[in-house]
Amino acid sequence: MKRVETKAHACAARVTAFCMVAVLSYMGVKSASAQGGEKHSASVAGSEVGRLWVERAIAPGFQHLAQQSRNLQQHFEQGCIEADPAWLHKTSSGFESVVKAWSGVAFLRFGPLVEDNRYERLSFWPDPRGVMLRQVSGTLQQFQGEEPAVPIGQSSVAVQGLPALEYVLYRDKGVLNHSLSADERRPLCRYAADLTKNIASVAGELSEAWLLPDGEYAQRFVKPAENNPVYRSNQEILSEGVKALSTGLQFVRDIQLAPPLMGSESKVAVKKAPYWRSGLTGPAIAASLRGMRTFVLAPDLLPADQEWIVDQIEAELGRAAQQANTLPLADEAVPSPSLRQEWMLLGRIVDNAKDLTDADLASVLGVNVGFNALDGD
């Protein structure tokens, strides 16, 4: 009970929306020590862990993002001004495909994704100060003329990625509003087309970096060595992967799910959630959880007598993805205890998965989760 009491004390200090459910969810999860398992060195995962992660999870994920982004870019090359119903429908479905593809790899916050501000260029979110809204308004003014003053790829990261594109598409007078005149649509279409081109460009860079055998970062990830400037051992690769998984789960729990639940005991502030304008909050979170599930299953991380840890993480991620896929949205001004319970349940399941990752998987693999990409945000 000592560990449970410690977690409860930490929860009391943080006063997050999921404190109590985190403790309750922990009660149903056995730790590695409780199962009688002992710590193994990183060698239990074998020397192929990096290659398997790249070939089975990382490279396919970024290739999918690149392809879906190219598809949306090509779609915007014609038809936006006329905007017939078929074009509008394909725009909406194309945007959803890119959001899901991005969400499935967004937890891989290391290497190419954090270089050159690529993460922020694809997704400047969360944005509690409303920087994107303010800057997009000015950017749209630039598109009223012949050429924007600054190319999108060289502009502020706030106006480059998917949140900006969602706003341009789904705002009241956005691209998906079929009643707009051609003159009203023209600057929106030009900006949206540039956004899709920029997103596809960044996604292509990521795909190329992770593609074997030529991708520079992929080579470093699959061949740790003393002269490797990034990874000198398989243990360092394991540490990178497990930390990415842990941080991804923390992001879902603390950044995507918790803020909408704060400030009221009966409502959900859906406008604090990702992709609320497009109604893709649940599908985006579900795609993220499925991406993490694929990642944790890619290599054989543990010996047979400890596979239960990965099995339980997989089960929790599967449950969470199913719950997220149907996550309801509602008018945040209207009390909705049942909706709130659905969000709370998802938070509890994600907390289960993170607890298993941090306390059991990381421990068995000799990984110290420590600080992560969210610390200091």
UniProtKB/TrEMBL annotation:
Q: Where in the cell is it found?
A: Cell envelope
What are the alphabetically sorted keywords of the record?
Answer: Signal
Start and end of every Imelysin-like domain? 59-329
Entry annotated with the keyword Signal: yes
Q: Fetch the InterPro entries from UniProt.
A: Imelysin-like, Imelysin-like_IPPA, Imelysin_sf
What is the official name of this protein in its record? Imelysin-like domain-containing protein
Protein's organism: Neopusillimonas maritima
Taxonomic path: Bacteria, Pseudomonadati, Pseudomonadota, Betaproteobacteria, Burkholderiales
